[in-house]
Design brief:
The structure holds three protein chains of three kinds. Chain A is of the alpha/beta class. In chain A, about 45% of the residues lie in helices and about 10% in strands. In chain A, the strands form five sheets. In chain A, strands 3, 4, 5, 6, 7 and 14 form a six-stranded mixed β-sheet that branches. A four-stranded mixed β-sheet of chain A has the order 10-11-9-12. A two-stranded antiparallel sheet of chain A has the order 1-2. The longest helix of chain A has 19 residues. Chain C has 14 helices and two strands, in the order H-E-E-H-H-H-H-H-H-H-H-H-H-H-H-H. The chains are: A alpha/beta, B alpha+beta, C mainly alpha.
């Protein structure tokens, strides 16, 4: 009897304590962390730096470890750059690296830093995930160490759109050092283009693009029934991230409210922008004269392009080598330089999806940006110095910029991008500059601490659901429903 | 009675007190009678050994008065005796070994060996431990021999090997630490990266062999082990303390067996330090030379065999030669059981004059025996032998399976096996062994022997590093244990290290291509790698059209797979490397570089007379080469341009 | 306490040790592991479910009682997603669970007739159960791949390959087929053994009474294998309420964030760094879901157990006897 009474009283107490039916309801829009100012830094610094007579820091065999999100061919390029750095700084700094897949990167690295177990010293990953790192106090700014080393650092030295997010909304703090930008790009078949375009010139807007594609289809299908003007892989996340993101940006859509971080997709202008973006992509697949097939995967699209069954291939900049190689295997007798100079050209998605070509948004390209961030686990000032030196090397060395461009990544550092040698290098001149005609038109997700919720569960989910629909009948209701879920979740976080 | 006991106790205590009153033995220096030394025949390498007052064996090595190994311990801990401390010296024996041997494949066809040997015998109770040292002009070697006073064959358990290598302070080292090659479980097959670390930064790493470090100015040492197969022991790695003293540890990622029972008499593998300049390191044959003046392996019942059967063990049937290999470029596109593809590669091999074609993983999926018979017959009719891929732990985990499977291959006329995944990947049987544990080493030995009996050659993949087995099993003509083209991300910072480390110790199956698979290594370098890394059966891994009717066709047609002589021409770690190899009267040079480089080649190694040099140099882009011909003599020198991540090759033919 | 009482207690302890000591010794390793890896995490999970908890910000942990549980009944994204996912799972289970009882039962019944080569058939039926769900995913993924390289799409060589893993209806069909192929063997073995234990005399008696094959099955076979059927139903029900493996491995990359079962919801939210502040809420969801599973199994056990007084035939027979 006594035990039963105690149990019932306990349960009652618990029930009373839980009067709040929604303890996660936060009128501001979620716990975003200490926005704007840092009164209680969560990082520490130990030790002292040694300097030589010329004021250069002297480091003795400092080991630093970088965890990066790049993998595949561009990880190999990254390792090449690291090897070069190690040779140049032999005896002073030794860099080792490892890679973690972008799916689950933030979770995996956050755990490692939080538990200080196998924690990296430097993180090199998509800037979109760094806001939540900062809010969770997992990274620290570079300010102090840049000052110690007299490194003249300023966000003015980087492409404006990208660097505007780099302080992660902490005024005057250098949390991120931006590196590069990447989005979906276009490769085209020069021989086929010459047949249907005067002087082999590329279309300058959407209307010309569709006209060219339809003309090419009509012409090529006389002898090749398998020909589709555009080979576009819709079965990987890059389609949703970059194509859909670009379509939204070009039609003036707003991803989220930068004050509250909540999404406002059903606001009339924004809803129209979303619909326009959807319809602009639908025309590729479902119009009276579609120029592509929805549901093609990487292998099908690549094979179509390699076998001259497509004029344009929408792909990724770091796949250039694979594309050249694949094309070469299907056209024996061609050297690599012949393929690059005479057979495959580079184009971009600027104006491709804008239904209003006169809009200032029409030239925007949406994508990702890599950035370096310094883990809070780095406390030794010598390690911080080594990290700062590596970061400075990577974002100022022209040879690094050229190597990194060959891996498909355009540098956002003015020191590199404005350098003549960089501009004159073959891949930058013929490919990178054509992939991204104006780096200041490049936009990213910005500084929301709710990137996964807003984009993965929200923006991209809209496209995943609605782009399978041939009409816009369900657009408004689906967008409204997903918006409700996203805002609910943001309220809870 | 009580008084008597008290008196006895007091006497005992007094004795102990008197004994310990005298001078402490450990305060006294090592007795002169417990110091020994041995030098190489040219006196360049000097090994000093001593037995200290605690009965511990210590050694150190110098070359040209530069310390290679500073004072380091030796010994073995076992369940029956502490063979590392409290030892008593018994006797020493010195001898000289001078001999020469022929190698069917490798850096040199006729190897002349000269060394001085010091054998020191120590004892603990009934157990003896001999430490056998050898001093060569290009390094040192030592091993342990354990036996009992009554020469019995009892088994002992080796608990720990206490071999140390105390490196000079803050040496620059190039190490490949253990990192599992799979995300779940432990597998390692020596296919990771060599990276620079200072010797005091090696803690917390398990370091594989071969391991290279810089001992001084133009003085390097490459530590590895030899005669591992047949030792009944396990493969070893190295572990460091905070001061850079390395100690041997069992190779990680072994199977479930973690105790090492060895029958007496036991001979450990040789611990070797190839020491000297980079030239001496690259040209050294020490890993195979250390076997001594031995013959090729013969079975125990050799004397009972017929004359015909005995002739098998001359190994005349082992024919080094280039192999055609389709897996790398067709992986994921066409299966190895695509017989059109395989016939295409037989035709390629035949037209190029290559010896073999390789059927890789998946070749026996849905196999029709008559298809295989037809294929092998076709290949043989074209003068091409067939090598097939098989999984070490799935196909050969028991002796019965080995015999049965190899007999079956032999019946089909298959001439060799490419046996893979000794590291345990993709294992589907209950085999509990892998990597370099005892049972896996027995598996290696068993396969070498069974293949020799059937006149089959062996290429080991997913395997451990070479440990000189080619010396007595010349049919083991190729080996992976290298980060090669299979990893399309292989870069020049590795390929300019490999000739100085991995390429030194035995055959390397890098699998060069002709046209590069990615930016990062030019075509010129891919060609050069055929020479920079030697193998008894180099696998040419590109599309057939990249070999046929190309400017480089003659190069690949005439490429040797065994060498009479090897010379290091020049280079530096992580910079560039140029090696020349001779086959008959032809010389072949290969060079690679990280940074763009103009290099001048001097041909003073040529004999008298005139020669024609065919030069393959980096072309205007990464996937082309310029081919030039020129006449040269030994007085000539040529300027070669190497592009960034580039290379060159030269074939020199006597006119 | 008097000395006599203390002595008696000591004696009793000795007696207990003497009698049960060995058993305790054998059981203790399991008990230890069970406590460390099951009981303690369960208690910790329950405690966390009563809090607002963020593993990356432990200082902000706040006790909120049952609020997290109440969230599951509110109008919020978690509740909507959870109940939607539960609904999808239940719909799938309504189809899958009977299939996974009837098909193995049918096969067991046929095998029990011992046709020629029945041992081989038995082995073939059981074999798929020994492989892991990942392999099942690889196999069925390759057969039903959306791309033209998938086995079925390649066979038809159509320019527009069938989106087996992208189309919702087709995908659930593939999941059902994979589940049946994979797990028929386990239930088959249990039911096969149960069928063999049905006394032949009962069959003979029924035949003598003029029973048809169907009546034999309904009135003799089913009642006698009721216990095994109950076990099979119990296991299958729990397994398929906890559906996670099949929808995860049989999925196209772009749909990997879709949530189709409560277990997927729990896993995805737990593995999301951004949702770390909702760890307490997710724990509550997991515990609540566990209670739902327990409820289903209680219902199942109640329906399957013998009535007090027995079945209606037993009652009729007793009346007849009387």
């Amino acid at each position: 009897m006594k035990k039963r009474t105690i149990l019932i009283c306990g349960l009652l107490a618990l029930t009373l304590a839980s009067c709040d039916t929604n303890p996660y309801d936060d009128p501001i829009g979620g716990g975003g962390g200490n926005n704007g100012s840092i009164t209680d830094p969560w990082w520490t610094t130990e030790g002292e730096l040694a300097f030589d007579g010329d004021g250069n820091v002297v480091l003795d065999e400092v080991d630093i470890h970088i965890t990066t999100v790049v993998n595949g061919d561009d990880y190999a390029k990254f390792q090449d750059i690291v090897s070069d750095f190690n040779r140049e700084y032999r005896g002073q700094i030794n860099v080792t690296t490892d890679t973690v897949n972008q799916v689950g990167f933030e979770q995996a690295v956050a755990n490692r830093i939080n538990q200080n177990s196998n924690a990296p010293d430097l993180i090199m990953s998509h800037q979109k995930g760094h806001k939540s790192f900062a809010n969770s106090k997992l990274i620290q700014p570079f300010n102090e160490i840049f000052d110690e080393l007299n490194i003249d650092f300023s966000y003015d030295n980087f492409a404006s759109n990208i660097s505007s997010y780099a302080n992660l909304d902490y005024e005057d703090y250098y949390f991120d050092v931006p590196i590069d930008a990447q989005s979906m790009v276009i490769y085209y078949n020069k021989d086929i283009l010459k047949k249907y375009s005067e002087d082999g010139s590329l279309p300058t807007n959407r209307e010309e693009f569709f006209a060219l594609c339809r003309e090419a289809q009509e012409g090529e299908r006389k002898t090749n029934k398998s020909f589709n003007a555009v080979a576009l892989n819709t079965e990987e996340e890059f389609f949703f991230w970059y194509i859909w993101g670009t379509a939204l940006a070009q039609n003036g859509a707003t991803f989220y409210n930068p004050e509250t971080y909540k999404v406002e997709w059903t606001e009339p202008n924004n809803l129209q922008a979303f619909k326009n973006a959807l319809n602009s992509i639908r025309e590729f697949f479902y119009s009276d004269e579609p120029i592509s097939i929805y549901g093609q995967n990487l292998d099908s699209t690549n094979n179509a392009f390699f076998n001259d069954n497509a004029l344009f291939l929408f792909s990724l900049p770091w796949s250039a080598d694979t594309i050249f190689l694949g094309y070469g295997q299907n056209h024996s007798g061609l050297s690599e330089s012949q393929i690059k100079e005479e057979k495959i050209g580079a184009f971009n998605t600027s104006r491709m999806f804008a239904l209003d070509q006169s809009s200032p948004n029409a030239t925007k390209i949406y994508g990702d940006s890599h950035a370096f961030a310094l883990s809070k686990t780095v406390t030794d000032i010598n390690k911080k110095a080594a990290c700062a030196i590596f970061v400075n090397y990577f974002t100022n060395n022209v040879d690094v910029g050229i190597d990194w461009a060959e891996a498909g990544h355009i540098s956002v550092s003015n020191a590199i991008s404005s350098n003549k040698e960089y501009q004159d290098s073959f891949f930058v001149d013929n490919y990178i500059n054509n992939f991204y005609p104006n780096i200041n038109d490049f936009v990213t997700a910005g500084n929301t601490p709710y990137f996964d919720v807003t984009f993965d569960d929200g923006v991209y989910a809209i496209a995943n659901t609605l782009l399978r629909e041939e009409t816009d009948r369900k657009d408004a209701s689906t967008i409204a429903s997903i918006q409700t879920d996203v805002n609910d979740l943001i309220d809870m976080l | 009675m009580k008084i008597k006991n008290c008196l006895l106790l007091s006497l005992g205590l007094l004795s102990i007190g008197l004994v310990s009153c005298g001078p402490k033995e450990s305060d006294n220096p090592v007795k002169e009678t417990n110091k020994w030394s041995i030098s190489s025949p040219d006196n360049k390498v000097n090994i000093e050994v001593n037995l200290n007052n605690d009965g511990e064996i210590h050694y150190s090595v110098k070359k040209n008065n530069t310390a290679i190994v500073e004072d380091s311990k030796l010994g073995i801990d076992s369940d029956v005796a502490n063979l590392h401390s409290g030892l008593t010296f018994v006797e020493k024996k010195e001898s000289t070994l001078n001999f020469e041997y022929e190698a069917i494949s490798g850096k040199e066809s006729l190897v002349k060996s000269s060394s001085n040997e010091l054998r020191l015998t120590f004892r603990e109770y009934y157990y003896y431990i001999d430490v056998v040292f050898r001093a060569y002009s290009d390094g040192y070697a030592f091993r342990y021999e354990i036996y009992k006073n009554d020469d019995s064959n009892e088994e002992i358990i080796i608990l720990d090997e206490l071999t140390e290598f105390n490196l000079p302070d803050k040496s620059a080292t190039y190490a490949m630490p253990y990192v599992s090659s799979t995300s779940n479980g432990d597998t390692f097959s020596y296919e990771d990266y060599y990276n620079y670390r200072r010797s005091d930064r090696l803690q917390d790493l398990k370091i594989s062999m071969p391991f290279l470090y810089e001992a001084g100015n133009d003085m390097y040492s490459l530590i590895t082990e030899s005669e591992l197969i047949g030792s009944n022991y396990i493969g070893s790695f190295l572990e460091s303390d905070e001061n850079g003293t390395l100690k041997t540890i069992p190779a990680p990622a072994g199977g479930s067996d973690t105790t090492y029972n060895v029958p007496l008499p036991f001979k450990s593998p040789w611990r070797i330090g190839i020491s000297g300049s980079l030239k001496e390191i690259v040209e050294s044959n020490l890993v195979e030379e250390v076997y001594g003046d031995v013959e090729y392996w013969k079975p125990d019942n050799y004397d009972e065999l017929t004359k015909e059967e005995q002739e098998i063990y001359n190994y005349d049937w082992v024919t080094p030669g280039v192999s055609a290999w389709s897996w790398l470029v067709y992986n994921g596109v066409r299966g190895q059981n695509d017989w059109d593809l395989q016939y295409e590669y037989v035709d390629l091999a035949s037209e190029m004059g290559w010896k073999r074609t390789i059927l890789d993983g998946g070749w026996d999926t849905a196999l029709n025996p008559s298809t295989l018979t037809e294929f092998v017959n076709y290949a043989n009719s074209k003068g091409v032998k067939v090598m097939v891929w098989c999984h070490a732990l799935n196909k050969f985990d028991t002796y019965e399976k080995r015999v049965s499977q190899l007999d079956q291959y032999a019946r089909f006329g298959i001439e060799g096996i490419k046996v893979d995944f000794f590291d345990g990947q993709e294992k589907t049987t209950n085999a509990t062994f892998q990597m370099e544990d005892q049972e896996t080493l027995e598996l290696y030995e068993s396969l070498y022997q069974l293949c020799a009996e059937r006149k089959m050659v062996v290429n080991c993949h997913g395997s451990n590093k070479p440990t000189g087995e080619r010396r007595i099993y010349p049919n083991v003509i190729n080996r992976e244990a290298i980060r090669g083209n299979e990893f399309k991300t292989i870069n020049t910072s590795q390929t300019t290290l490999l000739p100085f480390i991995r390429g030194v110790v035995g055959p390397s199956d890098f699998t060069p291509v002709s046209k590069p698979l990615r930016s990062g290594i030019t075509m010129g370098q891919q060609i050069a790698l055929c020479i920079l890394l030697e193998s008894g059966s180099p696998s040419m891994a590109d599309y057939s059209e990249n070999y046929l009717n190309q400017p480089t066709t003659e190069f690949y047609k005439n490429l040797p797979a065994s060498w009479d002589e090897t010379l290091f021409i020049g280079g530096d770690l992580e910079s560039h490397c140029v090696i020349a190899r001779r086959k008959g009267s032809e010389w072949w040079l290969g060079g690679n570089t990280i940074d763009e480089m103009d290099i001048n080649i001097n041909f003073d190694f040529l004999g008298e007379g005139k020669f024609k040099a065919y030069i393959y140099e980096d072309g205007e882009d990464a996937s082309s080469v310029n081919v030039k011909e020129t006449e040269i003599t030994k007085e000539s020198n040529i300027d070669i341009k190497m592009k960034e991540n580039g290379g060159f090759a030269i074939r020199i033919v006597r006119e | 306490m008097s000395e006599a009482v203390i002595n008696r207690k000591k004696d009793r302890r000795k007696e207990i040790l003497k009698r049960y000591g060995l058993a305790i010794g054998f059981v203790s390793p399991f008990v230890l592991v069970f406590i460390i890896f099951t009981v303690i995490p369960l208690i910790m999970g329950f405690v966390i479910s009563l809090c607002k908890y963020n593993p990356y910000d432990l200082e902000s942990t706040t006790f909120i009682g049952f609020s997290n549980y109440l969230m599951l009944f509110g109008n919020n994204v978690l509740a909507r997603t959870f109940w939607q996912a539960l609904g999808k799972t239940l719909i799938f289970d309504v189809v899958a669970v009977p299939c996974l009882i009837i098909i193995p039962l049918g096969l067991a019944y046929l095998i029990n007739m011992k046709p020629p080569g029945y041992k081989i058939f038995r082995a073939i039926i059981y074999l798929p159960s020994v492989i892991s769900i990942t392999i099942v995913g690889v196999l069925f993924g390759a057969i039903f791949s959306d791309s033209e390289l998938g086995l079925i799409n390649a066979w038809f060589s159509s320019e527009n390959p069938i989106p087996f893993l992208s189309d919702p209806v087709l995908r659930w069909t593939v999941i059902l087929l994979a589940s049946i192929w994979w797990q028929t063997g386990t239930n088959f073995i249990i039911l096969s053994a149960a069928l063999r234990n049905v006394p032949k005399s009962l069959y003979e008696a029924c035949e003598m009474d003029g029973g048809s094959r169907l009546e034999l099955f309904i009135h003799v076979t089913l009642p006698n294998i009721k216990g095994s059927l109950g076990i099979v139903l119990f296991n299958t029900l729990i397994g398929y309420l906890n559906l996670y493996g099949q929808p995860t491995v049989l999925n196209s990359a772009i749909n990997r964030n879709n949530i189709e079962s409560p277990m997927m919801l729990i896993q995805q939210w737990l593995n999301s760094f951004e949702r770390s502040s909702l760890t307490g809420l997710i724990s509550a969801t997991a515990i609540f879901f566990g209670l739902i599973v327990m409820l289903f199994t209680f219902i199942e056990r109640y329906l399957m157990k013998d009535r007090k007084g027995g079945s209606k035939y037993e009652i009729q027979y007793k009346a007849y006897e009387a």
